[in-house]
């Protein structure tokens, strides 16, 4: 998940010089607005620590009588071990299967009964649960969520039914989806020791052999108040909210957490390649380079910011470099995408993925991508290109704060990576200081073959039932 989503218009890069004065004006207009937003955010955000280790963050936003209530556990697929992949996601499902006070399936019905919406999601780095309700109903959903933090109680029969649902989810979302299969193989090939090499949903064999006790052990290991952050945003009074949290979450007992081993990824020594054969309509290509991430306590490290902006220059709007050259001009690919997560707990990749155009080859597509990258490395980027990205980062951040749920999401996700919510504005400010030369420098330093993994999808006829994967390292 990106800390900041990039949303852009469709102005052609070749016309950027003519719009630079307008962009500079927008930049100057956005900066005071951001400064005002920063001041309000600091004044309206309150952090507390309960005696049991639970962190509470309250963001006041009184524009509408609604509240977002989120509980974040720092326990994701990165914390899993071989043979038990997918257990974090399995436990997310089982959290809806009852406590001594709430029967299986009742949690969602009770939230709906007070007019709320709720859901949960599992990530590589965390698992989170949320409800959004009218402010007078916060007490109701908090009582429910706090109950299952300490008193989850599901039986083997409920587990047996739910694991079948999860295996079917894997079949539909991954095994029947060629793009997902390609990404899964890419991650498994790129990483050697990091748990990021495993899919969040888990390997099918691990799901088939998982038992209810595995999910219970995961719950006992990680679902403790001293491994959780509660984020509440909306039309609330912080002191009243604190008292409510102390009432419901305060009785939860802190537990000793498992030791987290660092699992440092060994240096890559050359190009890795993997080929996936699966039913699909077209060739697909993914190229992923090992790159640094932003680390807590190192907010002055310019390289992650430069990589984030490099992704924007290449694929930050409809007519960015890769789209303009490879899709519209050369027509070597049908679509192309760049991904990079600057904020995470584990090692990161800078990935370019594309669907190859009919009649074109993987070699042609890869050569075309390399051509765009080589030109950028040799000639750099225009100041107007970079300014465009930075202006939209500012404006998008301001618009994002119109969403009560979006504010809670941003706070929770950055806290899970080991940062503080107070770092959000500092990170955005640092992004504005990056120069075109720094963006060019990270491209030259990191988008090289020694840290590259290439994944290719070889499309098979739709009636092909078997999926095969083969790989090699140069």
List keywords for this structure.
single chain, 474 residues, Cytochrome Bc1 Complex, Chain A, domain 1, 2 domains, 6-stranded mixed beta sheet, 12 strands, globular
Q: How many domains? A: 2
Helix residue percentage: 40-55%
Output the radius of gyration.
Answer: 23 Å
Instruction: Compute the average pLDDT.
Output: 90
Instruction: Tell me the strand percentage band.
Output: 15-25%
Please give the largest β-sheet.
6 strands, mixed
Q: Supply the number of helical segments.
A: 16
Elements, N to C (H/E): HEEEHHEEHHHHHEHEEHHEEHHHHHEE
Ends distance: 31 Å
Say how many strands there are: 12
Structural class: alpha+beta
What's the CATH topology name of the largest domain?
Answer: Cytochrome Bc1 Complex, Chain A, domain 1
Question: CATH architecture of the largest domain, please?
Answer: 2-Layer Sandwich
**Low-confidence regions:** 1-29
CATH class of the largest domain: Alpha Beta
Report on this structure:
InterPro entries: Metalloenz_LuxS/M16, MPP/UQCRC_Complex, Pept_M16_N, Pept_M16_Zn_BS, Peptidase_M16_C. The chain has 474 residues and is α+β, with helices and mostly antiparallel strands. The protein has 2 domains: 235 residues, 2-Layer Sandwich (Cytochrome Bc1 Complex, Chain A, domain 1), CATH 3.30.830.10; 199 residues, Cytochrome Bc1 Complex, Chain A, domain 1, CATH 3.30.830. It contains 16 helices and 12 strands. The strands form 2 sheets. It has a 6-stranded mixed β-sheet, with helices on both faces. A hairpin with an 8-residue loop joins strand 9 and strand 10. It is globular. The protein starts with 15 loop residues before the first helix and ends with a strand.
């Amino acid at each position: 998940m990106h800390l900041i989503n990039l949303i852009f218009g469709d102005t052609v890069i070749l016309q950027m010089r003519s719009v630079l004065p307008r962009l500079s004006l927008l930049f100057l207009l956005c900066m005071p607005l951001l400064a005002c937003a920063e001041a309000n955010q600091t004044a309206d955000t309150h952090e507390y620590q309960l005696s049991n280790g639970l962190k509470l963050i309250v963001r006041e936003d009184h524009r509408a009588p609604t509240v977002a209530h989120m509980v974040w556990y720092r326990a994701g697929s990165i914390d899993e071990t071989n043979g038990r992949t997918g257990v974090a996601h399995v436990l997310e499902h089982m959290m809806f299967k009852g406590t001594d006070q709430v029967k299986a399936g009742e949690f969602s019905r009770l939230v709906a009964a007070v007019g709320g919406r709720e859901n949960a999601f599992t990530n590589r780095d965390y698992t989170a649960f949320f409800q959004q309700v009218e402010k007078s109903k916060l007490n109701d959903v908090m009582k429910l969520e706090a109950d299952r933090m300490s008193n989850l109680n599901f039986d083997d029969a409920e587990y047996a039914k739910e694991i079948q649902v999860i295996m079917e989810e894997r079949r539909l979302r991954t095994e029947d989806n060629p793009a997902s299969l390609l990404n899964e193989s890419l991650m498994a090939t790129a990483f050697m020791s990091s748990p990021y090499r495993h899919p969040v949903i888990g390997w099918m064999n691990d799901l088939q052999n998982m038992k209810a006790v595995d999910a219970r052990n995961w719950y006992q290991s990680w679902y403790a108040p001293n491994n959780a952050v509660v984020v509440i945003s909306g039309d609330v009074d912080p002191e009243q909210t604190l008292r409510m949290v102390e009432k419901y979450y305060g009785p939860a007992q802190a537990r000793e957490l498992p030791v987290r081993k660092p699992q440092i990824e060994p240096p890559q020594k050359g190009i890795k390649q993997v080929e996936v054969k699966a039913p699909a309509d077209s060739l697909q290509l993914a190229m992923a380079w090992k790159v640094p991430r932003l680390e807590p306590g190192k907010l002055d490290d310019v390289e992650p910011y430069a990589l984030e902006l490099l992704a924007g220059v290449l694929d930050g709007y409809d007519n960015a470099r890769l789209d303009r050259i490879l899709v519209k001009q050369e027509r070597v690919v049908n679509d192309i995408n760049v991904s990079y997560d600057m904020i995470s707990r584990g090692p990161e990749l800078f990935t370019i993925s594309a669907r190859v155009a009919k009649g074109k080859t993987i070699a042609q597509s890869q050569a075309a991508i390399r051509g765009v990258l080589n030109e950028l490395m040799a000639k750099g980027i225009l100041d107007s290109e970079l300014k465009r990205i930075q202006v939209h980062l500012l404006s998008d951040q301001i618009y994002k704060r119109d969403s009560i749920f979006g504010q809670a999401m941003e706070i929770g996700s950055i806290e899970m990576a080991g940062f503080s919510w107070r770092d959000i504005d500092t990170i955005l400010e640092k992004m504005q200081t990056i120069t075109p030369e720094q963006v060019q420098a990270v491209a030259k330093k990191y988008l090289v073959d020694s840290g590259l993994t290439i994944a290719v999808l070889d499309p098979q006829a739709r009636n092909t039932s078997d999926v095969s994967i083969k790989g090699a390292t140069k």
